[in-house]
Amino acid sequence: MIRPMRLFALAACLMLAGHAHAQPETFPAARARGELVVGIPYLAPPPVAGAKIRTPDGLDAVITEKLGASLGLPVRLVQLPAEQAASALAAGQVDLVLTDRAGDQPAAVAVQSTGYAARPKAVIRSDTRLRQPADARGRSVCMAEAATAAQALAQSWGAVVRTYKAPSDALVAVREGSCDIGLVDDAVWEPLVRFPEWKKFSSTLAADGARRERVWLLSANDQAARAWLGQEMRAWDRAGAWKAMTAKWARDVAFDVYLDQEVPDCHG
């Protein structure tokens, strides 16, 4: 009698485990549509035919792709300011919004933390005397045009702000000496300057500006999606997903810069 009872108990545990891992019916509109539509603050324009591919600023693209993979859905990105999130979610134009400017959202919009936060950090030649934000006054500071927080910070320093379509273009300007300071997120700064070719550009300024966390905005009515998204973000944190994504971004941008600076020289 004991053996059948043990088998029954084992079967019950397996059934409960299966239910625990089963994914709830999240984002029904996206599943019916066949794609997850996500609003982000800045959407890089599609590359012109024949133009070099450039890694976009920030992690928005890779974050949304990873989330789509977890849901088993392809992702379509649309440019959407955070202040338009509520109306776009209510109209079903987007399933989610990824932003660092949640602001005061109406009760119909839920805010889910990602756990990823960053602030601008300087990339500077190591043989300069620039060490404090005050030293940037009147200096040229370069960043991607999508990096609005970096632009605002550099303006507060009294710097001459120059924007580029891609972060690699801004960093090339720093390496070639046409720009005094480059700004990237502090989360990607460390993996970038670890590369041997970046050791001469591993100086920086004292930390300044507020850290901003990326957050998801979604319909507060979709309780299943809210619960699943919270679990997913915690799982990413436990698995070291943010470290992996920032390391890959740094590697991709370093390669973009290498192609710009080194490859043409091989044919010169």
User: Helical stretch count?
Assistant: 10
What is the CA-based Rg, rounded?
Answer: 22 Å
Largest sheet: 5 strands, mixed
Oligomer: single chain
Share of residues in helices: 40-55%
Overall mean pLDDT stands at 89
| Uncertain ranges | 4-22
Derived from helix and strand composition plus strand pairing, the structural class reads: alpha/beta
- What is the terminal separation in angstroms? 84 Å
Instruction: Tell me the series of helices and strands, N- to C-terminal.
Output: HHEHEHEEEEHEHEHEHHH
Strand line-up in the sheet with most strands: 2-1-3-9-4
Shape: elongated
Structure description:
The termini are far apart. Residues 4-22 have low confidence and may be disordered. This protein has helices at residues 2-21, 28-33, 60-71, 85-90, 148-156, 167-176, 186-193, 223-239, 241-261, 263-266, and strands at residues 36-40, 75-79, 96-99, 109-118, 120-123, 140-144, 160-164, 181-185, 212-219. It is α/β, with parallel strands linked by helices. The strands form two sheets. A five-stranded mixed β-sheet has the order 2-1-3-9-4. It has a four-stranded mixed β-sheet with strand order 5-8-6-7, sandwiched between helices. Helix 6 (167-176) crosses helix 9.
Features:
single chain; 268 residues; alpha/beta; 5-stranded mixed sheet; 4-stranded mixed sheet; 42% helix
Blueprint (SSEs and pairs):
Blueprint: H1 2-21, H2 28-33, E1 36-40, H3 60-71, E2 75-79, H4 85-90, E3 96-99, E4 109-118, E5 120-123, E6 140-144, H5 148-156, E7 160-164, H6 167-176, E8 181-185, H7 186-193, E9 212-219, H8 223-239, H9 241-261, H10 263-266
Parallel strand pairs: 1-2, 1-3, 6-7, 6-8
Antiparallel strand pairs: 3-9, 4-9, 5-8
